Amino acid sequence: MQYQNKSLGKAFDIIESLCEVPQTATELARGLGLNQTTLHRFLVTLLESGIVEKLPTNKYRMSYKFIDLGKMAENHYDLVGDSRPFLEALAKESGESVLISTFHNFSVSYLSKVESSQTVRIVLGPGDRVPSYTVASGKLFLAHLNESLLETYLRTVQLEKKTNNTITEKQLLLDELALIRKQGYAIDNQEYLIGLKGMAAPIYDSSGTVVAALSVAGVEIRLDPEKTEATINQLVNYAKKISYTLGWSD
C-alpha cells in the first residue's frame, strides 16, 4: 500500500496554482475545491515559511524566497554529467556518434560526445564551434530564436557556402527553420562537410526554454532514409528524457 500525505499534497496544489498566477483566497479555494478554513490554515503556514506572500490587493503569490530556492536547486543540475548515460545509450542504439551542444554568440559549441563504434567517425567534438546555419543543432537553435534575434542573426551573419548543400539564401533558411519548428527536429545533409549527416532534437529546461541540442551524426552513406527515420525517433525520445531530468514536462 502506497503511503500518501494528503496535507502535503494539498500544499503542493496551492503552490502550483500560485506559480501560474497570483490569486485571492476565494479564487484559490474555488479553483482547488478547498473550503476557506482549510485553505486559510495552509496559507498561514506558507506565509510563515516565507515562500508565499500576500499583496496589498489581497492576492497571494510565490515569494522571491521561493524563486531563490528554485535557483539554488537548479545549480545542482549538471547537463553534461546528467546526460552522459543517455548519450551512451543512444550511441549504442543508433551505432553513430552522439553529441550535446549549446548556443553562444550565434554559434554552436559542442560540450560532450560519445563516439560511434564505427571505424569511420565524425571529426566534430567538445570545444569545436561551427556556423549555426550549416549543422542540424545550429538550425535547431535558430528555429527557436525569437523574431528579433533571428532578424539580427540574418542581418549580421554571412551565409557562406561550405558545401554544395549549404543553405545560403535567407528565404530558404527561413523555410527550413519553419519546418524544424513544425516537426520538432532538424536534419543537415552534408551542409557543413561532404559525407557528414546529422540530426538534432531540442533539450528543454523547466521553463520550456531550449537550452541545448542532442545530436546524432554519422557518415551519410550509413544513414539511408530508413536508418535516418529510425534514428530520429530514438533521438527525439532521448532528448525528452534528458529534458525531464532538467525539470521539463510536456
TrEMBL record:
<dbReference type="InterPro" id="IPR050707">
    <property type="entry name" value="HTH_MetabolicPath_Reg"/>
</dbReference>
<dbReference type="Pfam" id="PF09339">
    <property type="entry name" value="HTH_IclR"/>
</dbReference>
<dbReference type="InterPro" id="IPR036390">
    <property type="entry name" value="WH_DNA-bd_sf"/>
</dbReference>
<keyword id="KW-0804">Transcription</keyword>
<dbReference type="GO" id="GO:0003677">
    <property type="term" value="F:DNA binding"/>
</dbReference>
<keyword id="KW-0805">Transcription regulation</keyword>
<dbReference type="GO" id="GO:0045892">
    <property type="term" value="P:negative regulation of DNA-templated transcription"/>
</dbReference>
<dbReference type="GO" id="GO:0003700">
    <property type="term" value="F:DNA-binding transcription factor activity"/>
</dbReference>
<dbReference type="InterPro" id="IPR005471">
    <property type="entry name" value="Tscrpt_reg_IclR_N"/>
</dbReference>
<keyword id="KW-0238">DNA-binding</keyword>
<dbReference type="InterPro" id="IPR036388">
    <property type="entry name" value="WH-like_DNA-bd_sf"/>
</dbReference>
<protein>
    <submittedName>
        <fullName>Transcriptional regulator</fullName>
    </submittedName>
</protein>
<dbReference type="InterPro" id="IPR014757">
    <property type="entry name" value="Tscrpt_reg_IclR_C"/>
</dbReference>
<dbReference type="InterPro" id="IPR029016">
    <property type="entry name" value="GAF-like_dom_sf"/>
</dbReference>
<feature type="domain" description="HTH iclR-type">
    <location>
        <begin position="5"/>
        <end position="64"/>
    </location>
</feature>
<dbReference type="InterPro" id="IPR011991">
    <property type="entry name" value="ArsR-like_HTH"/>
</dbReference>
<dbReference type="Pfam" id="PF01614">
    <property type="entry name" value="IclR_C"/>
</dbReference>
<feature type="domain" description="IclR-ED">
    <location>
        <begin position="65"/>
        <end position="248"/>
    </location>
</feature>
